[in-house]
Amino acid sequence: MIVTGFHASRTHRLTAGQKDANRVLAVGRAPVEHGFAHLKNWRTLTKVRTDPAKAAHFLRALLVLTNLEVNR
Which string of DSSP letters, residue by residue, matches the chain? Predict the structure, then answer.
């Protein structure tokens, strides 16, 4: 299931609740998008030739290490 935010148009403005919902989605989405951007810059995914479950563990470990380094 894909969860998308609310969209405003010229004739339909967003309510305060809809703006809050969009903000909550953005807060959850940003770290994931940053993580994928880092992986693309490292070109890590192009060289992974293993079981997808093992690759997922490897990628999670890389993201944890990256977050530890960034938060120092």
Answer: ---------SS-PPPHHHHHHHHHHHHHHHHHHHHHHHHHHHT-TTS--S-HHHHHHHHHHHHHHHHHHHT-
Q: Give the tens place of pLDDT for each residue, 6-50.
A: 999 999 999 999 999 999 999 888 887 887 787 777 776 677 777
Measured CA to CA, the distance from residue 70 to residue 72 in angstroms comes to 6
> Quick one: tokens of 40?
């693309």
Those residues with Cβ within 8 angstroms of residue 5's Cβ, 6 or more apart along the chain or in another chain: 21, 22, 25, 26
Burial class, 59, CB count within 10 angstroms (exposed 0-12 / middle 13-18 / buried 19+): middle
Q: d(Cα 32, Cα 38) in Å, to the nearest integer?
A: 10
